[in-house]
Design brief:
heterodimer; A: mainly beta; 0% helix; globular; B: mainly beta; 4-stranded antiparallel β-sheet; 11 strands; 52% strand
Chain lengths: 107, 120
């Protein structure tokens, strides 16, 4: 099975910082990579699908890029409501493995 | 409005059986896959498997194959996740989630989660 590895596992940022999270697949998954945001006590929320398509109602400060095995989620100017845990997930085939998550904390 | 409403929290003893539910509304239940995701307290998301209500085609993650059973009742637009013999390590939050196809589209709607606690 294809493994998904996110880095870093956590990061600290100040409001207004640019934040970048990476996700690497152990084999090519073409562009079938999704990003979710999860806040404590809540279900995850879809941010980006097919590597770079922004889900409706998601602020444009979020963007995604990549294809094949290497992907990036960028928050151009992190806001207080963005402090959360972010997960990538492959959707090229089953199993639809998640990355281990990246916790974005306030510096 | 699409909604996935899950059954309430459960407290069980090791060895007991359990069936939790996920009731769908606001869309054609038989036309979308329903997946299940586990989250152990303080840990990440784990994809358990997926079922297509239209024909009950089911795919399990190798990590969960044989450990759980997924099923649906089309007559009441409800998906189920069940255990025949719970272990303490099954303690987790379980989410149901909708996706449009087996491969490709992302999970677009999530249930609110069912917390399962297994303790003697």
């Amino acid at each position: 099975d294809i493994q998904m590895t996110q880095s870093p596992s956590s990061l600290s940022a100040s409001v207004g910082d640019r934040v970048t999270i990476t996700c690497r697949a152990s084999q090519s998954i073409r562009s079938y990579l999704n990003w979710y945001q999860q806040k404590p006590g809540k279900a995850p929320k879809l941010l980006i699908y097919k590597a770079s398509t922004l889900q409706s109602d998601v602020p444009s400060r979020f963007s995604g890029s990549g294809s094949g095995t290497d992907f990036t989620l960028t928050i151009s100017s992190v806001q207080p409501e963005d402090f959360a845990t972010y997960y990538c997930q492959k959707s090229d085939d089953t199993p639809r493995t998640f990355g281990q998550g990246t916790k974005v904390e306030i510096k | 409005e699409v909604q996935l409403v899950q059954s309430g929290a459960e407290v069980k003893k090791p060895g007991e059986s359990l069936k939790i539910s996920c009731e769908a509304s606001g869309y054609s239940f038989i036309s979308y896959w329903i997946g299940w995701v586990r989250q152990v307290p303080g840990k990440g998301l784990e994809w358990m498997g997926i079922i297509y209500p239209g024909n009950s085609d089911t795919r399990y993650s190798p990590s969960f194959q044989g450990q759980v059973t997924m099923s649906v009742d089309k007559s009441i637009d409800t998906a189920y996740l069940q255990w025949s013999s719970l272990k303490a390590s099954d303690t987790a939050m379980y989410y149901c989630a909708r996706q449009g196809q087996l491969a490709g589209p992302p999970i677009d709607y999530w249930g609110q989660g069912t917390l399962v606690t297994v303790s003697s």
